[in-house]
Design brief:
Distance between the termini: 25 Å
Helix content: 25-40%
Strand order of the largest sheet: 13-14-15-16-17-18-12-19
Bound molecules: FE2/S2 (inorganic) cluster, fe (ii) ion
Number of strands: 20
Shape: globular
CATH topology of the largest domain: Naphthalene 1,2-dioxygenase Alpha Subunit, Chain A, domain 1
CATH architecture of the largest domain: Alpha-Beta Complex
Structural class: alpha+beta
CATH superfamily of the largest domain: Naphthalene 1,2-dioxygenase Alpha Subunit, Chain A, domain 1
């Protein structure tokens, strides 16, 4: 499929049945709120979406060595993933075929590759073959065959440093599912990104509400006023009449792809790109102005921009910008030179990939990648098994490492208080801080639908249309 044809999302399909509740409708310009608040809708998602969609069960960094395992929960089902060897990962339904005991909990390593049930000691290898049943002759008249006691496999694909799984043996081939965004994931070099930190946060919102808080740049001036001071001053300040036209989000391009994926990126030169002087106030040095702004992302996220990158940028201070170049271009040149000297893998150096820095790639149904220079934040949101108003929000911070530096195994940190500045950095804390109020508003008796901006909020619409293709099938 050519890139041009991959880039156009299909038109929404008309409803197949008439019994679809009005409160679950995707409208032409908005979304009915039952899709977020109705426990029946959540149940339908568990019946028709999650058992059939490709989903990211883990980063490969969670199981770096042979015999390492980790578990993945979605709804009330559990899967464990085990690294068989350098190349192979297997996923199994997490139960013992004898009487159902979960064979794995959390993460760890199966000693010598032996998977042993703690209840009666049945044993398997990492390929899922059973090697031991105590008093085997007592079962099935002594005729227990290997297939009766094999571990039950789940379809599994390793790609871009992720372990994708699909519970449906008849599912869409993985290559077809990922094709529309494969060129981006490949060129962003996601597969070389290693664990930096990983946090899991319980949030008071439907899983879709939680992820849609990150599907556009439209919220930035109001939610993150420190990142767009002039715009925030207009929104919250004295000057609220008239029009303000300097919003950074007006420079952001949005795109939806087949299979529900989407992205936003630097579509046009921003107020900042190639025009640093506009941001330079009070005679500030342009390098300081740019570095101070990036520092807000370091301090506010720790990983969307790395401290070492800002430190490198500051070394440009006082140096002349060569004819035909720009401060931004010099910064990129320096980053790549530094990475090459350290043997550190970087994203492909193309305009399309550079435009993704500071943008976002959405992998349907529930993962967002926010890439930068050799590092990326990855968000994953999972629904609560029964409560439509709660979800688990995870942040995986990843980066490439210099040659010879051994990556550490990814271990999740559970956030106990999402409002604690020591546990959650400012920027995600601001985003997640809105969720309680959104949930409250969506439950208001007066609330029927949300409105969506046609261009800027198209990833939300694209996600819901794809969701309907699963739910209404
Ligand atoms: S339940 Fe696993 S060996 Fe009995
Ligand atoms: Fe945000």
């Amino acid at each position: 499929m050519s890139r041009a044809t991959q880039r156009t999302a299909p038109r929404p399909q008309p409803a197949k049945s008439d019994d679809w509740p009005p409160s679950w409708q995707v409208l032409e310009h908005g979304i009915r709120v039952g899709r977020y608040t109705d426990p029946e809708f959540l149940r339908l998602e568990f019946e028709k979406l999650w058992p059939r969609v490709w989903q990211i069960a883990a980063r490969l960094d969670e199981i770096p060595k042979p015999n390492d395992f980790t578990t993945y929960e979605i709804g009330d089902t559990s899967v464990f993933l085990v690294r068989v060897d350098e190349e192979t990962v297997k996923a199994y339904h997490n139960f013992c075929p004898h009487r159902g005991t979960a064979l794995a909990e959390g993460a760890g390593t199966f000693p010598h590759g032996n998977i042993i049930c703690p209840f009666h000691g049945w044993r398997w290898d990492t390929q899922g073959n059973n090697h031991y049943v105590l008093s085997r002759e007592e079962f099935k008249g002594g005729k227990l065959c290997p297939e009766d006691v094999r571990l039950r496999e789940v379809k599994c694909e390793v790609y871009a440093g992720f372990v994708f799984i699909n519970f449906d043996p008849q599912c869409m081939p993985f290559d077809e599912f990922i094709a529309p965004i494969r060129w981006l994931l490949d060129d962003l070099n996601l597969k070389e990104m290693r664990h930096y930190w990983w946090k899991s946060i319980q949030v008071p919102a439907n899983w879709k509400v939680a992820q849609e808080a990150f599907f556009e740049g439209y919220h930035v001036p109001a939610t993150h006023p420190q990142l767009e001071e002039d715009a925030a001053r207009f929104i919250y300040g004295e000057r609220i009449e008239g029009e303000f036209t300097e919003y950074n989000h007006l420079n952001v391009a949005y795109e939806t792809f087949p299979h529900g994926h989407g992205r936003f990126y630097a579509g046009k030169p921003s107020n900042y790109q190639g025009n640093v002087k506009r941001f330079v106030k009070g005679g500030k040095d342009p390098v300081d102005a740019m570095a101070d702004r990036l520092q807000l992302l370091v301090d506010g996220m720790d990983a969307q921009v790395l401290q070492e990158d800002v430190d490198l940028l500051r070394t440009l201070k006082g140096k002349p910008i060569p004819e035909g170049s720009s401060l931004g271009a010099e910064y990129v040149r320096l980053l790549y030179e530094d990475a090459a000297a350290k043997g550190r893998p970087m994203p492909k150096l193309t305009p399309e990939i550079l435009n993704m820095w500071g943008g976002e790639l959405f992998i349907f149904p529930n993962v967002m990648v926010l890439p930068q220079a050799g590092n990326a934040m990855i968000y994953r949101v999972r629904p609560h098994p029964t409560d439509p108003n709660r979800s688990t929000f995870e942040i995986f911070s990843t980066r490439t490492l210099p040659a010879g530096v051994e990556p550490s195994r990814a271990v999740v940190e559970h956030v106990t208080d999402p409002e604690d500045p020591n546990q959650v950095y400012l920027i995600p804390r601001q985003d997640l801080g809105n969720l309680k109020r959104i949930t409250k508003g969506l439950h208001s008796w007066g609330m029927r639908q949300i409105w969506l901006a046609e261009y800027t909020e198209q990833i939300i619409m694209g996600m819901h249309r794809e969701l309907d293709r699963y739910l209404r099938d």
